[in-house]
Structures are given as C-alpha cells and as structure tokens.
Amino acid sequence: MLTLELALAGLGIGSIAALAGLGLLVTYRFTGVFNLAFGAIAMATAYLLWQQVHVWHWPIGLAAPLDLLVICPLFGVLLERSVFRPLQRRGASTAEQLVASLGVLIVLLGMATVIWGAQARLDAPSIVPYRQLRLSGRLQVPLSTVVDLGVIVMVGLALVIGQHTRLGLEVRAVVERRSLAELAGLRVNRVAALGWAIGCALAGIAGVLMAPTMRLQPQGLTLVMLETMAVVVVARLTSPLWAIASALLIGVGQAELTRVRVNGSAEALLDALKSNLFVVVLLLALLMLRRLDERAAPDAGLAARLPTARGRVEARAWWLLPALTLTVPVLLSAQDRRTALAVPALAIVLVSVVVVSGYGGQISLGQAGFAGLGALVAGRLAAGTIPGLPRVPGALVLVLVPLLVLPVGLLMGWPAIRRRGLFLALTTFAFAVTISRFVFDQPAITTGVVVHPPDAFGSDNNFYVLELLCLGIALVLVHNLHTGRLGRALTAVRDDEMGAQASGIDVRFLKLLVLAASAALAALGGALLAMGSRAFDPSAFDPILGLIWFAVVVVFGVDSASGAVIGAGMLVALDAGAPSGTSILVIGVAALFLGRLPGGLVHTLSRLVDATMGGRVAAASVRVPVAPTRLTPTGRRALARTLHRPSSVRGAAP
Question: Contact at 8 Å (CB) between 12 and 212?
C-alpha cells in the first residue's frame, strides 16, 4: 500500500531529477551532443551560490537569479562557441563530442576541487524557504516540492509545444544535417547556442535545488547528478513527457521503499537499493533497450575517427619517455618512492583503456569498476575470505585476480556486442556506478579488507620491481593484441564493423575478447594499486575517476600504450606535488584542446618529429650522388635499334 506522505516526499526527489533530465534532453535535442558535463555544471553552480551567500554575504535573492538566469546561460553559449561549434562544423563523431563534454566535466571538477577543496559541506543555501503547505487534514507538502513541480510542468509544456513550432523544425533540421541547414539559410549557430543556454540553466537549477538535500562535495554531487540521466535513457533520448513521468515514478518508488523492512543479509542490499534506485533503473534500462535515438551519424569507433598515434616516433617514444617515467621513482627519496608506487599500477589500468578503446574502437567508461573488483578480490584471496576458495599465498594472488575478474568482463561484454558509441559508453558507466554503490560502498563486503604485497616483495623497492614486471607482461600481451593477424582483424572491426563482418571476421568474438582482456588488465592494475597503499579504499575506484582515466588515455593517445604509461606518471606526479585538483584540471584543459591536437599528445609529437626528420631526409637526399646507369649488352643493342628507327615510327609511340 502506497503512503501518500512518502509519495509527496518522493515527488520532490523526482522533480529535481526531472529538471536535470530535461536540461540534458534539451541540449541533446538542440545540438545532438550528449552533455556528460551537465552534472559538473550543476555542481559548480551550487558551489558558486555557496560562495556568494556564505563567503561574500550576497543576498540569496540577488545571487540565485544572477547565477541561474545570467551566468549559466552565458556559460552554455561560451561552451557552444568555443568547444562544440568547431566539432559540429567538421562533422565530429559521437566519440569526439563525448570526449569534449568529458573535458568540460573534468575542468569544472578540477576547478571546484582547487578553489573549494574536496571536503564535504553541509550548509548549501536553499533558494526556496523551508515551509510546509497544508493540503487537507494532517497532510502537508514542502513548498520546495510545489515549486519544483511547477518548474518542470512549465519546462515540459514549453518543450512539447516548441516541437510543433518553426523553432522546433529548425532544431530538427540543424541536428539531423547541419550542413544542409546552413545551406538553407537557417541560423544554426543561434539554435545550438539557445540549446546550450537552456540546458546549462536547467542543470544549474537542478544543482541548486539538489545541494541542500545532500552534502556539497565536488565528486559526490557530480556523480549524483549524472545518475539522474536514467530518466532520459528511459525516455530513449526523445520524449520530455516520458522523462518527467519516469523521474517522478522513480522518486516516488525510492521514497516508498523506505517503508520496506527485511531481516538478515538482504537488509544491506535493500538499504543500498533505497538510496540508489536511479542507478538500478539506469543499468536495467540500458540492458533492456535495443537501441537509443542517437542523433549523430553512426560511429566507426573512437580510434577510427581520431587520428592514431602510430608512426616512427612511437617506437622512439616507447623507449625514451616511458622508460624515463618509470626510472625516475628509483631516484626519489623513500617517502616519494612510496607515492610513486602507483605509477606502474595505474599505467596497467590505463593500458586496459587503450585495449578496449584504442584497439577495439569501443568507448568504455567503466574501468574503475573492474580495477576496484581486482583490488577487492586480491584482499579477500590473500585473507581466504572468498567462499569456496582457500587462502592464496604470495604472488599467486596476482595470477588469480585477472582470471577471476575476467568472467565479469565477459558478462559485461555480452550486452555490449550490439552496442557502440554513446550506447556502450553509458552502459559501461552505469556498470561502474552499480559496482561502486552495491559492492564497494557496502561495509559488510569491504570492512577490514587489507591488501598486503607478497612477502618476498614487502619492501618498496622490491614491490616496485614486481610492478614493473607485471607492467612488462601486460605490455607484451597488449603488443600481441595489436600485431599479427589478430591485430589486423581488430583494426578492421574498429574501422568498419560491417565490412569486417562481411569479410568473414567473427566480430562478436573479437568484441568479447577485447572487453575481457581489458577487464583482466584493469583488475591486475587495481590489485597493485591496493597493494601499494596497503588497504582497499573505495574512493580510489570512484566512477568519476574512471571518466578521468579515460580522458587521460585520449589526451595522450587513445591507441598508444606508451602514452598511457606517460599519462600515469604525470597524473601521479601532479597529485603528489601540486594542490588537490590540479591533475584533474590539467587533463580537462588538455581534453578541451583535442580539436587542435587530433590524436592526442603522442600523435602530435609524432607528427612534429616526423616532419622535422622528413625535412632532414629530403635535404640529405639531394646531396647523395647518383651512380650512372650501366646497360647490359642486350640493353645497348635494344637502345641502338630504337635510335636508328625512322622518326615517324618513334613519334608514333604513345
């Protein structure tokens, strides 16, 4: 039996989720870009309002309208003009647009961490006064819920009515075929800018309304807002009314679940479900839907549409920069060397992204989930607390961890067989969030898990040698995936899946192979990360970190294993030697400039050095003397006969 009081409370939760979903839907329908940064925009707006009210002592009646009606829309116009308009003009793929929005998310996350810190705040200002409105008898509803419902009704009606106006026709024309819309004289830039302005304003409103109900923390608030994209997935990225209805239903369902009580081991699972119903709906919707209404052109894969980092410099960079990155920790002090233990382990995790995204052409945002599973399994194997398995001694743990996590990669890879681009990216991200909320955040599973290095590698120096050995084995395996017959088949699938299938390549098998190998490598890297820190830390495998790791790989070269090693070294160095959030900010800024650095930093370096070396080779070739050609006796006789022919005959030759 539903409880009316709980249902009204759930409407407040659902209305905020509906606002966030409508903001995401508006941006997508106006521009064709699935804006992963909308959660970070909501978070940054909430922090800006906190700064204005609690630090600068502005009246909230002035600060809130300024932020929501001026700053957020202007920020959306700025994003469209500087980041996404160049991508739209050159017909960028879904993958490139997704990476650009991911860059915006990381920049905002890094700025918030640098400016306000990573600690949680409980004093977020509320723009709606706390007041209860009496409906009938003892039944009351918060004023904020009434305001939220009024806003989503107005926005929803505006979107539905707007679809049948001239503006709606222009929007569809711009999204479907931007070049033809420009030829027809439509104001495509204004339409796109309007979509970004409305989308960012709605994201800001959702963030300001959500912040007072939870802790104000950069990664936490961003992730909660990202979870609300379940409503647009249920709506298949098309219908505002379905998005609103699904958001309200999920909100009411989450509130009604608080009445359910169970005993025993299922209690912890039910408690997790009560607070993470949006996550469950997101994953189930992605697994059940056969397709989404993706507005962009079909993707050929991430690496297929981005220039690759292969070239003559790749071999040199492999031996120089990565070797230097891995050698520097040996020269550091004992304390700094302990911090540097994370470099080879993180490099293995990033190499797993190269396997699935660079070699397989799939967008995977869920590597943090596999890495965390590897760390958790390693700790429980060493302690002998996995049911049905004995205590595993020493380095044998590192052999079994990839093998035990590999079936999870196969299970995750099975629904991904028919998914590409945005659909697969959302599916893998939902998987990472689900694993984080229902496994890593459960005290019954993670409490007391201690992950020690093998006894023979207990010292930092010995453990670093073990990490280098594991990294070397991983790189050899990855190299074998990228060369020979298997490498050519993967390249064919990445570049043209339909053509590869028509030529007889088993596309399904190769997709499963790549996803399973990637999961096993990420698990190995996660186990080494936990061993280096001597404990299992759930925050070290936050789904937001998975987004950052993906961005690092793309920035340094999506199909460059050496770039992954260099990126791991830079990320660890910045985290250790710079203020908190600096590494995130640097990676985000670099991701925003991918339009000017196609293929990443390694490929850009490759082109520069190749151009320089090519010029030297060309100059040297001019100075090389050419030896006179010597004709054989037969050649001399043939030349003599040709020269003694009549001129008319010689001239008749074509």
Answer: no
Distance, in Å, from the CA atom of 145 to the CA atom of 130, rounded to the nearest integer, reads 10
Torsion angles phi and psi, residue 150, rounded to 5: -65, -40
One domain, residues 105 and 157: yes
Domain that holds residue 384: 302-605
Question: Is position 319 within any domain?
Answer: yes
Query: Does some domain include residue 640?
Result: no
In the three-class reduction of DSSP (H, G, I as helix; E, B as strand; rest coil), residue 566 is classed as helix
Residues β-bridged to residue 134: 140
Radius of gyration of the chain (CA): 28
How many folded domains does the chain comprise? 2
Query: Does residue 34 sit in the same domain as residue 166?
Result: yes
Give the residue from 605, 627, 647 where a domain finishes: 605
Same domain, 178 and 306: no
Note whether 309 and 249 are same-domain residues.
no
What pairs with residue 560 in β-bridges? none
In this structure, are 218 and 340 located in the same domain?
no
DSSP 142: E
Q: How many C-beta atoms lie closer than 10 Å to residue 3's C-beta?
A: 13
Given pLDDT bands bounded at 50, 70 and 90, which one contains residue 643? very low
Does 311 score more than 80 pLDDT? Answer: no
Per the model's pLDDT, the better-predicted residue between 197 and 162 turns out to be 197
Is residue 636 predicted with pLDDT exceeding 60? no
Q: Domain boundary residue among 579, 605, 631?
A: 605
Q: How many CB atoms lie within 10 A of CB 613?
A: 13
Range scoring the smallest mean pLDDT among 90-99, 451-460, 510-519, 528-537: 90-99
Q: How far apart are CA 453 and CA 447, in angstroms?
A: 19
| CA dist., res. 507 & res. 504, Å (int) | 9
Spatial distance between the Cα atoms of 654 and 136, rounded to a whole number of angstroms: 100
Same domain, 505 and 575: yes
Predicted structure pTM score = 0.83
Rounded mean pLDDT, 162-168: 70
DSSP 594-620: GGTSTT-HHHHHHHHHHHHHHHHHHHH
326 in the same domain as 442: yes
Q: CB of 548 within 8 A of CB of 219?
A: no
Segment 412-419 mean pLDDT = 71
Instruction: Give the E-state strand segments of 28-177 in sequence order.
Output: 132-136, 139-142
Residue 290 counted as domain residue: no
- Given a cut of 50, is residue 648 above it in pLDDT? no
Q: Indicate which CATH number applies to the domain containing 351.
A: 1.10.3470
- The two structure tokens encoding residue 307: 């220039």
**Residue 493 confidence (pLDDT):** 77
> Mean pLDDT lowest for which of 37-41, 352-356, 420-424?
420-424
Say if residue 527's pLDDT is above 80. yes
Say which residues have a Cβ less than 8 Å from residue 466's Cβ, sequence separation at least 6.
395, 453, 454, 457
> Does 309 lie in the same domain as 249?
no
Residue 615 lies in a domain: no
Encode 478-509: b = buried (16+ Cβ within 10 Å), e = exposed.
beebbeeeeeebbbbbbebbeebeeeebebee
Q: Is the separation of the CB atoms in 144 and 130 below 8 Å?
A: yes
Residue written as token pair 């202007």: 74
Which pLDDT score, from 0 to 100, does residue 637 have?
56
User: How do residues 312-351 score in pLDDT, each as one tens digit?
Assistant: 444 444 556 677 677 776 666 667 777 888 899 999 999 9
